[in-house]
């Protein structure tokens, strides 16, 4: 009789175990205690894309997280701070990543991360999301809501201990027009090589940013001092600019090795209609004998139209 009772007890135990297991499979978050588990990451939670070409397509960055506890973890939902940014979350057991954004964030996704398993968050920014002229700095956040215990490192307290915590990822960069982006890339190459090869014209700086200028501000100028390192005497035959709104003068037109000089660049913010946002103009230095590569300077400007488009001196001028 005792033997039979023991067998029945074992069978009952097995049935209960199977039922609990089936319930866990059907409801992956059912056995999760909120809050539960901890999250770690080998990545920083911040990323800077630097310069972004508005016509260069999406930029992205992957972040890898680990449930480093002995308990299962649940990702409840996620959202981003702007529609231009999406988060694609990949979890164990799912063949495709789940996309979340500012307006696509279901409240109860409830994806389970087993103890010791990883999940990845691929952050994607679309520089054209706000239109072809939306240049300038960007700073975006991605919020991932989980059952993790708030540790003030990776996971922060959300709205109370019973609601789990939130992971915040921050991404930033600066969007430039394609022309400005390519120019900045070329300037970087020039700066990188200037330490290896001493240029004939050695400028203290080859670019200057006037920042935001009011249309009513009047003519502004900036001096670019230089030293001439060439082996032969040269004459300056001209300092042409890329646009009529910009003019340049040089104070020394005959240069021998070791001579110094200054190129003064002037800009008129009210001559004619300019591009929206930040833009640049260039100045070239022409010499006799001619150089294989003409030295080039650059100024950056952004216009505040405090007088309005009708106030331009040349209303119909096409840049």
How would you explain this protein's 3D organization?
With 319 residues, the protein is mainly beta. Residues 15-30 have low confidence and may be disordered. Helix content is 13%, strand content 41%. The chain is built from 2 helices and 21 strands. The longest helix is centred in the N-terminal third of the chain and has 25 residues, at 2-26. The strands form 5 sheets. Strands 2, 4, 7, 9, 10 and 11 form a 6-stranded mixed sheet that branches. Strands 1-3-8-5-6 form a 5-stranded antiparallel sheet, with no helix packed on it. It has a 4-stranded antiparallel sheet with strand order 12-14-18-16, with no helix packed on it. The chain has 2 domains: 39-176, Immunoglobulin-like (Sandwich), CATH 2.60.40.10; 198-311, Immunoglobulins (Immunoglobulin-like, Sandwich).
Named at the architecture level, the CATH assignment of the largest domain is Sandwich
Number of strands: 21
Order of helices and strands: HEEEEEEEEEEEHEEEEEEEEEE
Q: Which structural class do the helices and strands define?
A: mainly beta
From the spread of the alpha carbons, the general shape counts as elongated
The count of domains is: 2
The Rg value, from CA coordinates, equals 31 Å
Strand content: 35-45%
CATH fold-type name of the largest domain:
Immunoglobulin-like
The CATH superfamily of the largest domain is: Immunoglobulins
CATH classification class of the largest domain: Mainly Beta
Write down the overall mean pLDDT: 83
Q: Helix fraction?
A: 10-25%
Distance between the first and last residues' Cα: 102 Å
Quickly count the helices. 2
Q: Which parts are unreliable, with pLDDT below 50 for 5 consecutive residues or more?
A: 15-30
Largest sheet: 6 strands, mixed
